[in-house]
Write a structure and sequence with these properties.
This protein is of the alpha/beta class. It has helices at residues 61-67, 92-105, 119-130, 157-171, 185-199, 202-207, 228-247, 262-265, 267-277; strands spanning 2-7, 25-31, 34-42, 45-50, 71-76, 113-117, 137-141, 213-218, 252-256. It has a nine-stranded mixed beta sheet with strand order 1-2-3-5-4-6-7-8-9, with helices on both faces. Strand 8 (213-218), helix 7 (228-247) and strand 9 (252-256) form a beta-alpha-beta unit. 42% of the residues are buried.
Amino acid sequence: MTTKTNAEPAGSDADGERTGPDTVRHFTIHHDGVAIPVSRGGRGRPLVLCPGLSSTQADLHELIALLRQDHDVVAFDLRGHGFASAADEYTFDAFLGDLAAVLAEVDLASEPVLVGYSLGADLVVHHASEHSGSAAGLVLVDGANPVPEPFVTGADLEDFRAMWEDLATANGDRLGTARQVSLTGKEILDLNIEIDAVRSAVLDRYRRIDRPVSMVMSASITGGDTGGRARRLDRNWRAGVERLLREQPHISVTWLDADHGLAVTHAPDIARIVRNAHGPADGTTP
């Protein structure tokens, strides 16, 4: 069910940024006891942007504004993120349900390009693999990587637990804002362990997708740390992509000199890659 539709003044988004001549509409989708805030604006081929864990529409406002120049962009916040309501559970399937609910409710002129960031990339791969013909193509930003080894291992468990507890504490300063994240440190840890399991079987998901797939990956997911663990994680990240390309050589991969925050730090590069891969539907040259 969709309720509460509002329109912003032409040329602005939730942060007041200029977005072009089109009005940006905001509405709320209710499903599974959760209220999902959605924004829609721009013109051109439909595009749905799925954020990742601990990222919100407000965090991705620059990327959204750039994508709106060439696409009719639908963006939203996952449960427990931004102005989406909190939930009783934060599991991969629950987040996948958020994406499915948005896609079911929005009225698009044609199959959308699905763009997913981090966890969002895994979500769009799973959705596309389960719903043939639901997408014109996929752009995956630093996610859905079939890494050969899990990221969260027993040896590093306590360090990751402490890191995500610190993140949850820091998120407390954003409560009540468009950038809030309601998950606890334990919920973030449990979800990352689940994502490791999901990615161990993601190759089979790729085999079911018959649409173009582009990947935009960080050259150093850990941010260039020279420690032994960072080197291992970076090697594992690159090895996952190499593994995917051995089986799916038609997938296009662009490596950016960035860390996992590339959707924020390299928004113009990502918008350009999306445009080149899935430009305007009217046949004009990207």
